[in-house]
Amino acid sequence: MNRQTRYQGAIIKDHHILLLKQHVFPPGQPRRIVWLFPGGGIKLGETEEECVKREMKEETNLEVRVISLLADEMYTPEDPAYVLLKNYKTYHCKPLTSEASPGSEPEYRPEVDPTGSRNPLISEVKWFDLRNEANWDTELINDPIIYIPLQRIRKK
């Protein structure tokens, strides 16, 4: 699996974008909960579009149609709560099924969770209005790793 690039989906429906509330376990730090785009690594033999569709299904239980590449960004987050990757490719996706729900992380290994928590890695999925951030969670607004890309998507 190529872990240098994260392939993620901006699932947009009626001016709302779907994000995941995910538990992360930064090395040497307590568990944290962050909002993320659904996504992950590409498997051997998969196209980028196939990877995005698979990840959206695994993590949100939605079938999607990949519309286009929205962003291809290279950066290394300073925040250890995020996996240090070199490249993030964000694809605009349209949901083909109606009900999103928290999915799973098939690659998750329980031994990564030093707390022994039985909480699911993905605890919530939520639609956020791209036209008005007044109802966005404070954690989302104060997290530059997700907030800055969301602002770029809002402008597009």
Topology readout:
Layout: E1 2-13, E2 16-24, E3 32-36, E4 39-42, H1 48-60, E5 64-74, E6 87-95, E7 122-129, H2 138-141, H3 144-155
Parallel strand pairs: 1-6
Antiparallel strand pairs: 1-2, 1-4, 2-3, 2-7, 5-6
Overview of this protein structure:
The chain has 156 residues and is an alpha+beta fold. The protein is built from 3 helices and 7 strands. Strands 1, 2, 3, 4, 5, 6 and 7 form a 7-stranded mixed β-sheet that branches. A hairpin with a 2-residue loop joins β1 (2-13) and β2 (16-24).
Précis, in short:
The protein has three helices and seven strands.
Quick tags:
19% helix, 7 strands, alpha+beta, single chain, globular, 156 residues, 3 helices
Q: Report on the biggest sheet.
A: 7 strands, mixed
**Total DSSP E strands:** 7
Give the ordered list of helices and strands: EEEEHEEEHH
Helix content: 10-25%
Tell me the radius of gyration: 15 Å
Count every helix, treating DSSP H or I runs of 4 or more residues as helices.
3
Oligomerization = single chain
Low-confidence stretches: none
Average per-residue pLDDT, rounded, comes to 83
Instruction: Based on Cα principal axes, name the global outline.
Output: globular
Would you tell me the structural class of the helices and strands?
alpha+beta
The fraction of residues assigned to DSSP E strands is: 35-45%
Distance between the termini: 30 Å
